[in-house]
Design brief:
By secondary structure, the protein is an all-alpha fold. It is built from 8 helices and no strands.
């Protein structure tokens, strides 16, 4: 491990990370893991889930390191990432409770002839292709249920930028899904 990296600023470490420098990644991980874990644990109340959230953030950071663009600071980026993952966590918890309630009450509806899972996967793939900020704004809006104002505050951008990014994402999704659904209609 390169102990010199301990004295580097985030601004010096991030380009090294983008170039695939594992020691720079390790320094960033050690610098922010405890802080992100504390935030996630405080929000979720479940240590194992908080650890999984933080691990996902760092795995995503490494996987998408060349595509990530940081405008303010690495710390702000990671803080936004932990907030987003906590929102996703609570959304997942909510959906699981609804499914369990449906199963218990016997109100689960018969699925139509097309596969919702496949459609959901297609939406996920199309969303993953969006530019970083556009994808993040869309997911905070649709998956986490945040208002435009909350997204703007979380990402430190204007509400107008939030609106523009959501419009861009919806146009992209609409075009992709239109072609997908036309294929399903021909089957």
């Amino acid at each position: 491990m390169n102990t010199l990296y301990h004295s580097y600023t985030d601004e010096q470490l991030f380009p090294l990370l983008q170039d695939g420098d594992e020691a720079a990644f390790t320094e960033i991980y050690q610098r922010y893991w405890k802080l992100l874990f504390a935030v996630a644990a405080n929000k979720t109340g479940v240590l194992a889930d908080a650890e999984e959230i933080v691990q996902e953030i760092f795995a995503d950071l490494w996987k998408r390191r060349t595509a990530i663009s940081i405008r303010h600071s690495l710390k702000a980026y990671l803080a936004g990432a932990v907030k987003f993952q906590v929102y996703v966590y609570f959304d997942k918890q909510h959906r699981q409770r609804l499914c369990q309630q449906e199963a218990v009450s016997g109100e689960a509806q018969v699925a139509p002839s097309y596969d919702y899972k496949a459609l959901e996967e297609q939406v996920h793939q199309v969303t993953a292709q969006l530019p970083e900020r556009c994808r993040l704004v869309y997911e905070l809006s649709r998956n986490a249920g945040l208002t435009h104002k909350e997204i703007a505050r979380t990402l430190e951008i204007s509400e107008k930028t939030v609106e523009n990014q959501i419009t861009k994402a919806l146009k992209h999704l609409h075009a992709a899904l239109r072609s997908l659904l036309s294929l399903v209609g021909t089957l």
